[in-house]
Amino acid sequence: MADGIERTKELTKRAVGKCTPNADRLSNAVKSLIDKVMKGQIFENASALGILQWLLCSEDIKTLASSIPPWWYNGTSTTNPDNPQEQVTPAQVYFFGRSSTLGGDILDKLRTLQYGPENSATQQTTFTDKLTQQQSEINSFKSHTDQQSGVGDPVTFQRTMGIASAYDSAKQQMEGKDQDNFTGFFNSTIQGPIIVQQMLNLLCVPDSLGQILRNILDLIAGILPFTLDDIIGLLGGMSLDAFFDKLDQMLSDLAGFFEYLNYIVSLDLSRFSLAQAYVQKFTLGQFLAAIVNGDGRGNCIMRAMLEEFTGSDNLRDAITAIDIERDKEQKATAAAASATTELGKDRANKQKKTDKEIFFEPVADELIFEGVVTGTPTPTPALDPQTVALLEQKLAEIEQRTMQVGYRVASLESNQVTPTPDDGIHDGGFFDEDASGGSDGVIIVGWPSPTPTRTPTPTPTPPVELGVDDGGIQSGGGNVFG
Description:
This protein has helices at 2-19, 28-38, 48-65, 90-99, 106-115, 127-149, 154-175, 187-203, 209-221, 228-234, 240-293, 296-310, 313-338, 342-351, 365-368, 385-404, and strands at 79-80, 83-87.
């Protein structure tokens, strides 16, 4: 028995020894990269630190604001006469005692901030409840940007990157335009750090309105003696009325930023859904073309099925065009192979490249989704000019970096690319061309071609604009800030 075990070990050792030298080898640099991936040292969420800072500072303000006593408490009964289940906390009793000695109406203003106007006809959401909701929203935003930046689940990150890359490649092949179809998947990753910093500026940085409020609440809820002058001194020259007016506007602006964060997350998700549908249809088209071009019984049967039963006239026209194109290429190849001189071979090879390449206009989103109603696009939240300028600068930096790493590579023969207006003669003005079609390889309107006339597809009335056709942040798509 022991001998059998030893013999098995020896055989295994020999087998492994034979296989190991043939295993794929990785360079040291590649192995170092993979090692860092394994240890979680590759990615970072650029919004994460700012989000953590905002959460800590908002929690501090929320804790202090919870000490503001309700309207019904007047320093006597600790039980709400209209709701026996509601009682004031010791911290609220203490806060009332400290603030009631100030005079003026600062306590009323703080109560209005926390609970809404006195004797309001409707139940108001408290200031602390709003902060709690915003904390939940920013945590959700962090979870999303973790996934988008590679910090979270690697499978989700790889899926997003894969669909984004496939979508960009498919759009370039079909439309032939030098455009960015990639960064629209990562609106939250690109714009998030700027928006989070603006939120910190409102609530958390020194001398911000949020920190002035925090210092006022901390002074009243603290243990050191103070006067109304001490409160006024914290306002930096503002009156109480002016401060609370500005505070109301600040909180409104803060709510707008949260609305915008939710909006750019929806853009990411909408772009992914659109791209996934586009890539699926693009892949289906490639599969059908492979059937038409393929040999063997299987392809023959599938082609017959398409031509006789499941295909429309448009498909049959496309199959005919593929047949013509393939036959022409085969004849040119045969001519090149049979040519006896270099001049003849060169002439035959050039013949294979005479056809102008056709590009197509972008397909409407609703057609990609096959008419599925996806709802009304979310209105774009308003942003102040400073934030818009910062976002434009960030996007410009990303575009410049993209150009530097060669992401957009022009494959045109001409070095001069002059936009030409679409005058009904040329192909749309995206490439350099002359009256004969130019050197961009794009066929112009009416160019002679052996391809049969395609049956035009009726243009439907657009039911709903999705707003994600180019990664913009305006409803219905379009330029980001144009």
